[in-house]
Amino acid sequence: MKKTILVALLGVLAFGLVMAGCGTGQGPASTGKKIMVWHWMTDREEAFEELARRYEAQTGVKVVFELYAPSDAYSQKVRAAAQARALPDIFGLLGEKRDFAAFIKAGHIASLTEAMNASGAAWKGMLFEKALAVNEFKADNPFGVDAGIYGVPIDVMNIQMLYNKKLLRKAGINQAPATWSEFVDACAKLKAAGIQGLVSGWGEIWMIDCLASNFAFNIMGPEKVFATFRGEVPYSDPDWIAVFNLFKEMAEQGMLANGIVTMVNKTAEQNFANERSAFAFNGSWCVNVYHGMNPELEYGVMLPPKVNVRNNAYIWGGAGSSLLVNDRSLVKDDAIAFLKWLTDTEQQAYLSETTRNLPSNRKVVGKLPEVLSEFAKGTDNVTHPNVWPVNELPKVIERFDKGIQSVIIGEKTPERLGAELTALKKEEMAKK
Length: 432
Known about the structure:
Elements: H1 2-22, E1 34-39, H2 45-59, E2 62-67, H3 71-83, E3 90-91, H4 97-105, H5 113-125, H6 129-133, E4 136-137, E5 148-149, E6 152-164, H7 165-170, H8 180-192, E7 196-199, H9 205-220, H10 222-229, H11 238-252, H12 265-273, E8 277-283, H13 286-293, E9 299-302, E10 315-325, H14 332-342, H15 345-355, E11 358-359, H16 370-376, E12 382-383, H17 394-408, H18 414-431
Parallel strand pairs: 1-2, 7-8, 10-12
Antiparallel strand pairs: 3-10, 4-5, 6-8, 6-9, 6-10, 6-11
């Protein structure tokens, strides 16, 4: 009898253990594994936390996102952690390609090449190629990094021109200008109607650098631009003078918003959102910004107007934000698996919907709102300093950008700027 009771009790206990193991249909029990992620993206904090909850429910692996902002403070924390070998399992790196390379060579970043190429390159194939390129090092890279992919883009971005549909209609303009002559004509009509033309945050000189390089690539082609960076073509060349003359023309013809040279981009975004200017030069992140400032804003996206109609138009773009895996992480394989999940179609669609950023997963593009979809169409025109074979020297870039500001306000002529840059380039090349 006692034996029968003991068997029955054991059966009840076993049944209880089985039921506990099965759970209540809410997902697998915790594995005890935890992945730590550091980031700087304040606009994505809530979305990341929701995705972390979903991932734990599906896999039992806990993901903890830790936000450090602003971006300068985040970068300082990452560099300090790298020196102490205390980086988290997943992190982002804000900096130039040479900084990226230095972290890889120091053993802080894992190669994702094998994972990307597994199963017929399934993971790699679902991501935009030009977004991956920002995280990839080719075999002949100047940094001595082993060829491969070292980061995962979680969204993409590009920088184009925006136009206010209502203001264009008010000035009698039926469609967005595609060429420089059409752009000049449109701005003349806007000026006659009392409407400012182009606004942008040119107080942040990198934005001047971006548009100027767009024009340079279109006028002379990428190879001549790169030849200039190598010191083979002077900035006094007629094609570079033509680039500088575009900014002079915009200023002299009254095509620019008041105070554009000292304007920060946040102020420029408010200007366009409040319908004080008809055109803006800004990045795809503006979709979320403008929605917060003026949900009723009626605007479209256009490529920078072509000066040389025979050549392609070019825009800066690529990976907007990328995440990297710590090569010393104790849960490295789990971290890689999480990033693969994060860039899968369902999660990418959720991120795009909630943050209004362009997804890095190409399969989501067909489901985007109209304005984001227009930004996505520019992907084929994308280029970026991080994927160029050669870059200009820092002092020359600074003089280039500030020199264009001087041209805009009439302090320098395009010819004088070209001569100054040519002389400075020779000096910097001699030091190098």
